[in-house]
Amino acid sequence: MEQKVCLIGKGTVGSSLLKLLIEKRKEIKDKFGIAYKFVAIFEFDGALIDEEGLDIEQIDQMGVNFRNSKSWKLGIKILDHITQLDLDIIVETTPTNPETGEPALSTIVGALSNNINVVASNKGPFYLQYQKIKDLAQENGCQVRYEGTVASCVPILSMREALVGNTITGIRAILNGTCNYILSRMSAEGVQFDVALKEAQELGYAEADPTLDIEGYDAAGKLVILANELLGWSKTIKDVQIKGITNITAHSIDLAKTEGYVIKHLAITENDKLVVEPRLVEINNPLNISGTLNVIELQTKHAGPIILMGRGAGGFEAASAVLNDMINISLNY
Amino acid sequence: MEQKVCLIGKGTVGSSLLKLLIEKRKEIKDKFGIAYKFVAIFEFDGALIDEEGLDIEQIDQMGVNFRNSKSWKLGIKILDHITQLDLDIIVETTPTNPETGEPALSTIVGALSNNINVVASNKGPFYLQYQKIKDLAQENGCQVRYEGTVASCVPILSMREALVGNTITGIRAILNGTCNYILSRMSAEGVQFDVALKEAQELGYAEADPTLDIEGYDAAGKLVILANELLGWSKTIKDVQIKGITNITAHSIDLAKTEGYVIKHLAITENDKLVVEPRLVEINNPLNISGTLNVIELQTKHAGPIILMGRGAGGFEAASAVLNDMINISLNY
Question: A216, A178 in Cβ contact below 8 A?
């Protein structure tokens, strides 16, 4: 089975996906009988286009100079070409715009409206317009998958199917590696918040403008997607009660420690509420992970807590989640 | 869609499954359009049989006195009735016989040979004759699922599909709650092995004859299933290098602790080998869980370690895994 794919965004995730596919192409063909043909790769200022299939090895080797390829067409936009490319899957990997979800939101809506399946690693559209996207997919008989939007490679969204014989009743999670790194360092070294933040920035764990991470907005967006997907809710990020970690002091962390607790930035469901804020966690609780890891504890009705953890960020981590979604879409075609 | 089911074994798991189905029957009908009709429940000495469907509420209420039901037929055997019951699914929940896998192995082989799908919580057949069972299922176009055989409710076997875009390269796990409880108590309280074992027996975490647990045979069987399922191997329990925990002393645990380690009974893959033995684990490693929990760390090629944990035993825990498998079989019918 050949599947025609259009990739939107050739940043860290998009470029990692190309590398991953070059490596796993033969395995995917042998195991599942699927061949992915990339007919277009869009960036903000144009696209690589070849209806016969782009040479992704060559594009990978060109790295950031891919605009020198003879397939490059300056200034063209996906929504003007979406019908004529005869696509099976659009893969959306652009960076998140937390206010509008654009341009990813319009691309996803455009794809589904034209009966094209969607894989996304961009979470914005899903915490802003979850219900609209799901409804549109259903109306058009399309699949939309977005495992990479929450905790990257950790297959937490697949738990809906994997726990279908159980009942998930609540969520407690650490979904932002930057905050967890900062709190872990403050706890281990006794340093103040701004020192730990600066260290995180130097190591590349925090952005130059870390607001979305340290104020809790990033974690809140992921919590919305988790709750909608696993608990059947229909919330947006506006429904989340959000507190960041900027007011945490080395002193408060010390006080917690003397009582056997750590301070963690948790994303939780409480009754029918979504809350992101610093909370005390017992030192020997599985949620007390350190570094940039993500962890999600699902409370279940019939089997207590079920916990997943792993790396919450990284190009190949997200790309492996995207590829997973692509294969699952193709197998359900 | 109506699915005719035969349950083998009305012990803890079988009885919990009936209770779970009574509770979730309406939800399963509404959500998936599936109605499970139990036409037979076999025990070692006979069966409850009604081709029109047994009244499972009544049977549940009778508890251990189910043999008083007018549907009870003394002395009949599943293999003599397997063809005339017109079954869609056989659910195997008998206790594990570690040497022969019987009677579960013959029941499973009989079911698949007669084109009946199988769900099992009994791991014996799978660590003794994995390849034979898988081949038979494929030859007959049947589904066989056994999520409950490893770590109970933790959906670790579903990771094969959920991580299809990644590559699982190795496994490190704690798969026996009894051993982990004993080692946790020795570590926390400084008591010797036999004191901790006695405590585990009093609390119901260890059997009167704890040999299979403390000598590592139980964990080894589960490791075989994990490796075959997630790494594509084709091993049996004879291929596992097994050491138990009976020689661990409070002194050795103390020595480890002074260097920042704990002693854990790990089930691991090393190159192409399967090993179950006590190993040192760093105190802040996610594998350092306490109590009767199970934990599985999957090493992956593209996204580092992905870790799942949860309760590894219990009637409802296993029953929820069984129900999960039943629903997935019905949805793929």
Answer: no
Q: B118 forms bridges with which residues in the sheet?
A: B90, B144
Tell me which architecture the domain covering B2-153+315-331 has in CATH.
Answer: 3-Layer(aba) Sandwich (3.40)
Per the listing, tokens 């799901």 go with A134
**How confident is the model over A235-245, as a mean pLDDT?**
97
In A162-186, which positions are buried (b, 16+ CB within 10 angstroms) versus exposed (e)?
bbbbbbbebbbbbbbbbbbbbbbbb
Per-residue pLDDT band for B208 (boundaries 50, 70, 90) equals confident
Q: Which of A161, A304, A321 sits opposite B310 (nearest CB)?
A: A304
CA distances from A258 to A44, A125, A251, A253, A267 (A): 52, 42, 11, 9, 24
How many Å separate Cα B219 from the centre of its chain? 11
Structure tokens at B290: 């306490």
CA angle B6, B9, B14 (to 5 degrees): 85
Quick one: closest CA in A to B287, which residue? A286
What confidence score (pLDDT) does residue B255 get? Answer: 95
Residue A22: pLDDT band (50, 70, 90) is very high
Predicted local distance difference test score (pLDDT) of residue A333: 77
Residue A305: cis peptide before it, omega within 30 degrees of 0: no
Chain length of chain B: 333
Please identify which residue in the block is written with the tokens 């009946």.
B116
B10 labelled catalytic: no
User: Contact B328/A164, CB-based, under 8 Å?
Assistant: yes
Pairing between strand A35-43 and A46-49?
antiparallel
Alpha-carbon span A170 to A161, nearest angstrom: 16
Rounded distance between C-alpha atoms, residue A250 and residue A257, angstroms: 11
The mean per-residue pLDDT over the stretch B289-303 comes to 95
Q: Return the percentage of chain B with pLDDT > 70, whole number.
A: 100
> In B, which residues are within 8 Å of A328 by CB distance?
161, 164
- As beta bridge partners, residue A89 has A5, A117
Domain boundaries, chain B: 2-153+315-331, 159-311
C-alpha–C-alpha distance, residues B232 and A179, integer Å:
38
Give contacts of A304 with chain B, Cβ < 8 Å: 153, 310-311, 317
Give the residue numbers in A contacting B (CB under 8 Å), as ranges. Answer: 20, 24, 152-155, 158-159, 161-167, 284, 286, 289-290, 300, 302-311, 314, 316-317, 319-328
B91 pLDDT tier (thresholds 50, 70, 90): very high
Q: How far apart are CA A263 and CA B327, in angstroms?
A: 40
Query: What is the value of ipTM here, to two decimals?
Result: 0.95
Write the pLDDT tens digit of every residue in A243-274. 999 999 999 999 999 999 999 999 999 999 99
**Residue whose C-alpha is closest to residue A300's, from B266, B63, B233, B317:** B317
Tokens of B303: 């996204």
Query: Which phi and psi (to 5°) does residue A286 adopt?
Result: -60, -20
Rounded CA-CA distance A29/B81 in Å is 43
What topology is assigned to A159-311 in CATH?
Answer: Dihydrodipicolinate Reductase; domain 2 (3.30.360)
Q: What angle do CA A252, A258, A264 make, to 5 degrees?
A: 50
Q: How far is CA A207 from the centre of its chain?
A: 16
Identify the active-site residue in B222, B235, B264, B301: B222
All residues of chain A having their beta carbon less than 8 Å from the beta carbon of residue B283 are: none
**Structural contact between residues A219 and A176, judged by C-beta atoms closer than 8 angstroms:** yes
Contact predicate A265/A276, CB 8 Å: yes
Q: Which residue of B has its CA nearest to A310?
A: B306
User: In angstroms, rounded to a whole number, what is the distance separating the alpha carbons of residues A17 and B210?
Assistant: 49
Neighbours of A279 (CB within 10 A): 17
